[in-house]
């Protein structure tokens, strides 16, 4: 296939930033008040480039802000799940996650895609895949085939693949459930994430463009992600150490919108539920 015709995915994780425990409650509320303007700026950017995408929405936010949830749907974007709360799932028990999947359906209706908060899908909690399948989900996008300080599943395929709970690091020809791993770029034996978070905010945008091109030339779509709060230049200040401030939380507001628009202009993007991998 002509690499320029491949439809990539620039997904949005719609959530509040994971604030440190010590952040006072009043600050949390101020973050929540920013959601609408963050969403509006994003919807405007996607609309300008005539791109629809997938929003992985935190369930409790959809419940508290039905108007925002409707806005996303009205613009013809796909709603997928980013769990009910933004809690890491590394320690979740199978029974708890079964209940979680039921709640997701109750809150969001039928959704096809899932992304674990903080990419916390591992072999240890791979039952998540089976529970999602039972609840008619068709795909997951929680694998970062690299190692970072926060998450990572080094050794997993870096192109979309048929995943199974038996071994999440391998393609399973008979599985009908698809994994869309986050974009990475290889340097010799190493792979670094190039599709989101700190890497997308602060590394040269040319590196991400190169990673997308490489992926498309290899015949596969690239999956990128960003958080709504990364596009906000008016985030309330929270006291935290330098590492958390730069690597985990803070974006560059308006500059990030420019980066997003540059990518939307330069490549083809679309909703995940319209991917040929799901046909
Ligand atoms: Zn998240």
What does this molecule look like?
By secondary structure, this protein is of the alpha/beta class. It has one domain (3-278): TIM Barrel. Helix content is 36%, strand content 13%. The chain has helices spanning 25-33, 35-48, 59-64, 66-74, 94-108, 127-134, 197-202, 205-217, 242-249, 254-266, and strands at 9-14, 54-57, 78-81, 113-114, 139-140, 161-162, 178-179, 184-187, 190-193, 223-227. The strands form 3 sheets. The protein has a 4-stranded parallel β-sheet. Strand 4 (113-114), helix 6 (127-134) and strand 5 form a beta-alpha-beta unit. Helix 2 (35-48) packs parallel to helix 10 and helix 5 runs parallel beside helix 6. It is globular, with a radius of gyration of 18 Å. The two termini are 17 Å apart. The model has no long low-confidence stretch (mean pLDDT 90). The structure holds zinc ion (ZN). The site of zinc ion has 5 residues, from loops.
Question: Order of strands across the biggest sheet?
Answer: 3-2-1-10
Secondary-structure-derived class: alpha/beta
Beta-strand share of residues: 5-15%
CATH class: Alpha Beta
- Number of helical segments? 10
Overall radius of gyration: 18 Å
